[in-house]
Amino acid sequence: MAKAPRAWYSRIESYFTNKGFFKCTHEHTLFMKGQEGKMLIVCVYVDDLVFTRNCEELINSFKEEMKTEFEMTNLGMLHYFLGIEV
User: In Å, how far are 8, 23, 28, 41, 53 from 34, measured between CA atoms?
Assistant: First the structure.
């Protein structure tokens, strides 16, 4: 029984919801947050997060907030995802 992945997803979903993110209705692992023309998009895949933005300051504050809540490692720019070169 896979209870740990469900518990993890429930925790991260709750975190994003409390931080003002909206969950995509078609892809339940995709969260979006917009403010004053700035957009932050986060995709959760198992225990990895892939995120993008249209404003550099959003990314930096997002990373810092995430570090205070979760133990995480910044792997830098995305080069491969699910075996696909990006």
Answer: 24, 12, 17, 9, 10
Q: Which residues of 55-72 are buried (b: 16+ CB within 10 A; e: fewer)?
A: eeebeeebeeebeeeeee
Long-range contact set of residues 12-17: C-beta below 8 Å, sequence gap at least 24: 12/44, 12/70, 15/69, 15/70, 16/42
Q: How far apart are CA 85 and CA 39, in angstroms?
A: 24
pLDDT, tens digit (0-9, with 9 covering 90-100), for 38-72: 898 999 888 788 888 887 777 888 888 888 888 88
Tell me if the pTM is above 0.90: no
Structural tokens at position 43: 């995709």
